[in-house]
Design goal:
One of its GO terms (molecular function) is DNA-binding transcription factor activity. The protein has 296 residues and is of the alpha/beta class. Helix content is 43%, strand content 22%. The chain folds into 3 domains: 5-81, Arc Repressor Mutant, subunit A, CATH 1.10.10; 93-164 and 265-294, Periplasmic binding protein-like II (D-Maltodextrin-Binding Protein, domain 2, 3-Layer(aba) Sandwich); 166-264, D-Maltodextrin-Binding Protein, domain 2 (3-Layer(aba) Sandwich), CATH 3.40.190.290.
């Protein structure tokens, strides 16, 4: 069976116009070319698609069934061609981006929307992970980009662009013991269980860890659920509270006596400078650089 896109297009047009001559006019072909194409398609399929006894060809039941699938098949074939053309011009087959779980409230989808608009055929895969695991994904090539918090020291092969600031705040349920104090000493923090967002690798010490007694989770949503159950206190994105009025009523931002109870970090887009970048990766980097020029 050797069916090509032109045969399918001619078949579709005949079905829509109701005759070989009308299809020929619409496609800019002579009627004999349309008739021959349909005849060859019937031979390839070993099916009779049209009854030709009358003045105009009448579609058979088989033709009507196949016509229902033809439009979608032609769309998929066009998409396949466009994707192949994009790949030949340097587009990646896929782009993997990992977003640190506390940063899911940073409107990161704006960057993905810009990518999709520029490269609608591109396969984009989004992962979420704690900061330490996101860094691992960059190192081992599982992800080409990481949206993550600034770090004191970058790996030698890493490069980054600053995106914005993100604030984290220490919170507890309003019924939790720590929430009853107007100011909390460092000793109280040490002795109270902390729910900390950390790497799945238990050998890696969690960041923003203050308590001697702590439980780990790999995302801030589960951390929040445990905090609401009075299982401990923790550090959550301030934006998470601002976007959820009910959550803001249920939680109290803790007031630490010895330091400011608000942690502000820059958020960076990080990538491995030694990895070969495709068209989409280069576009994303340049897009964010242009946004910074227009903002700052």
């Amino acid at each position: 069976m050797n069916i090509n896109q032109e045969q399918l297009l001619i078949f579709k047009t005949v079905m829509q116009t109701g005759s070989f001559s009308a299809a020929a006019r619409k496609l800019g072909k002579v009627p004999s070319a349309v008739s021959m194409s349909i005849a060859n398609l019937e031979i390839d399929l070993d099916l009779k698609l049209f009854n030709r006894a009358g003045r105009e060809p009448v579609p058979t039941a088989q033709a009507i069934t196949l016509f229902e699938k033809t439009e979608q098949l032609l769309i998929e074939m066009n998409q396949w061609k466009q994707h192949a053309l994009a790949l030949s011009s340097g587009l990646e087959s896929a782009l993997n981006i990992v977003v640190v779980s506390e940063l899911l409230h940073t409107h990161w989808t704006d960057y993905i929307a810009a990518l999709e608009k520029q490269f609608p055929e591109l396969q984009i895969n989004i992962f979420t992970a704690p900061q330490e695991d996101a860094q691992k994904m960059l190192v081992n090539g599982t992800a080409q980009f990481a949206l993550m918090f600034e770090r004191e020291q970058l790996e030698s092969n890493e490069q980054f662009i600053e995106l914005k600031r993100q604030a984290l705040v220490p919170v507890a349920s309003k019924d939790y013991l720590l929430a009853q104090y107007p100011k909390i000493s460092f000793e109280q923090i040490l002795q109270s269980r902390q729910i900390v967002v950390a790497s799945r690798d238990r050998s890696i010490k969690p960041e923003l860890l203050y308590s001697k007694n702590y439980w780990r989770t790999d995302n801030h949503h589960s951390a929040c659920a445990m905090i609401l159950q009075n299982l401990g206190w923790g550090v959550l994105p301030e934006a998470m509270l601002n976007e959820n009025p009910l959550l803001k009523q249920q939680l109290k931002i803790l007031n630490f006596a010895d330091f400011t109870p608000k942690f502000e970090y820059f958020v960076d887009l990080v990538w491995n400078r030694e990895s070969q970048q495709g068209a989409a990766a280069r576009f994303l980097i340049n897009h964010i650089r242009n946004l910074r020029k227009n903002t700052f």
